[in-house]
Structure formats: structure tokens, C-alpha cells
Design a protein that fits this description.
By secondary structure, the protein is α+β, with helices and mostly antiparallel strands. The protein contains four helices and six strands. It holds the Pfam family Ada_Zn_binding.
Length: 106
């Protein structure tokens, strides 16, 4: 019987594992979420990566998914030192949200 092999991203390198880890990530958008996230389940498997911990995902430059919201305030306090530019949890979730320039607004 063939076992599933999951690509775990840690310290910039992929490790193959029989367990998926605690979080799943989408490589093109650098977004991570819970394993049961509806958005994550729709992603193309070739773009999927996994993380053993919240810290691993954040260190790799991934931001939390806005749909499944895998980080609560208590979690954010634990990882805030890794993202000092984001003073609040909401700012971390909105990291990639860009406001249109004045000339682009309608």
C-alpha cells in the first residue's frame, strides 16, 4: 500500500513526511490556513505545502487565510516578534490588501 507523502516546508527546504503537518499553505499567494479550510481544499495540489507549526509558516513569509482565520489573538501574541511590522492581528491578516492609488479609485 502506497502512503501519502506531504511536502513540509521548513527553513526554506522541503521535507517529505507521511503526516501533513498542522497547517496547509498555497505557494503562489504565500497564504496558509487550517487543514479543513474550504479555500485550501480547492487549491491545486502542486501548489500546496504544509507546515508543522504556525511559527514555520510565518517564518517562511506566509500570511494567514482570511477565510478560515487560523490565528487567534493568543496565537498572534506568540508570533508577533516574527512580524513586528504588523502591530495587530487584523493588520497581519490584511498584509496583502492594497488600497488603490488615488488616481485608480472610482
Amino acid at each position: 500500500m502506497k502512503k501519502n507523502r506531504y511536502r513540509i516546508l521548513k527553513n526554506g527546504k522541503f521535507i517529505l513526511s507521511e503526516k501533513p503537518g498542522k497547517y496547509a499553505g498555497w505557494r503562489p499567494g504565500k497564504i496558509f490556513g487550517r487543514l479543513d479550510c474550504a479555500s485550501g481544499k480547492r487549491m491545486n495540489k502542486k501548489n500546496r505545502v504544509f507546515f508543522h507549526s504556525l511559527e514555520d509558516a510565518v517564518r517562511e513569509g506566509y500570511r494567514p487565510c482570511k477565510n478560515c482565520r487560523p490565528i487567534n489573538q493568543e496565537d498572534f501574541k506568540k508570533i508577533r516578534h516574527l512580524v513586528p511590522e504588523h502591530r495587530t492581528l487584523e493588520k497581519f491578516y490584511d498584509r496583502d490588501t492594497k488600497k488603490p492609488a488615488k488616481n485608480e479609485r472610482r
